[in-house]
Amino acid sequence: MEESPLHQFELHNWIPLSIGGLDISINKAVIFMWIIIAVAAILMIMAGSSRKLVPGKLQSLAEMMVEFIRNMILDTMGKDGMRFFPFVATLFLFILFSNYIGLIPGTYTVTSQIVVTAVFSCVVYGLSLVLGFWLHGAKFLGILIPPGTPGWLVPLMIPIEIISQLARPVSLAVRLFANMTAGHVMLVVLFSLTVGGGLLIGWLPFVFTVAIYGLEFGIAFIQAYIFTILTCVYLGDAFHLHGHDEHAH
Amino acid sequence: MPQFESTFFSSLIFWEVISFGILLFVLYKYAFPGILSALEEREKKIKDSLDQAELHRSEAERRLKEYEAKLSAAGKEAEAILAATKERAQRLLEENEQRLTAEAERIKGDATREIEQERRKALQDIRTQTTELALMVAEKVVQRSLTESDQRRFADEALEALSKSHPR
User: Fold this and answer.
1) Does B63 map to a domain?
2) ipTM exceeding 0.85, yes/no
3) Domain that holds residue B30
4) pTM score
5) Mind listing the pLDDT tens digit for each residue in B39-94?
6) Which residues, at least 6 apart from A73, have a Cβ–Cβ distance to it below 8 Å?
7) How many structural domains comprise chain B?
8) Residue B115, in any domain of the structure
9) Interface of B with A (CB under 8 A)
10) Which of A71, A118, B37, B78 would you call most buried, defined as having the most Cβ atoms within 10 angstroms of its Cβ?
């Protein structure tokens, strides 16, 4: 294989399109976004329409997922957070299906595009800021001073907390993007070694390819989970300024 | 890295927002209500079943207590009846004993009296016969020197003296 391992992430405009000077050409990633939402929507609607008391496989799986996200929301945001259930669940499903569909050879991993993960993280972080200021007003700025900070540390804590706040959307976006990219790069590198190594030594990288592929299956879920739980945590911070003691009264 | 080629950013952002929006709408409208309501229904069903079971359990417990109370009451009653019966039997026994004792006493008294009577009668007989015998003897001795009334008087006097010297 002569190709660069990054070749897989390259995009080409298949159908040039633009509205109002904005380039919205259809490329491989866009097609896979459509596939993702189609698969996710079809599976979830099928699962949601059966509504049996004793669920079948698909219904169980969908219910497990819904319960999973519901518990995540209840743990971090409390009962009020259920208003964000559709958003959080859709986010989880979009990322999960994107990660998993991307694992099928020949497909495109949408979440390996930094701009895609950045949009999600900016929306999530923006939402948490809006929610925080909407619920607490100017008092939400108190998030920059952790509870129990001695007075003389405040001037130091505020810049540190600003940095940590700004790191939130960046780390959220980069974590998912980097994990997906690195995983796929590693798979391509190992597989090209398999092909290049021939029968004599090629089996060794092939074993690794299979092992890493299995690992990537786990990572695909874990990264979707991490993105979602951090979304919940950030939104939860906006709900309960300074953790759960605020929640009590 | 191809991911940092900004030429595709606009179309990716645009289609991401559109796709996400569509998915959110579709799931919100058609999938989540069904799944959530199925979950809630099941939760409710399980909770109801548990409540029902709890209700049955407490009902069973109440009945058990009731039965136990009844059982112990019946036991007490049986004990009371037994005690009363025992007491009555004891009383009857005592009564019987007393009656029998009295009866025996009475029979004994009767017998004593009868014996006494017989004894007296026998003594009387003996006295009469002795008197007659004495008379016969005296008659033989005196050879009709005395009248019968004299003889009887002497004999009576003799007997008097006899009975005085030998009181019964």
Assistant:
1) yes
2) yes
3) 15-165
4) 0.71
5) 888 889 999 999 999 999 999 999 999 999 999 999 999 999 999 999 999 999 99
6) A81, A82, A84, A85, A88, A232
7) 1
8) yes
9) 1-5, 7-17, 19-20, 22-24, 26-28, 30-39, 41-42, 45
10) A118
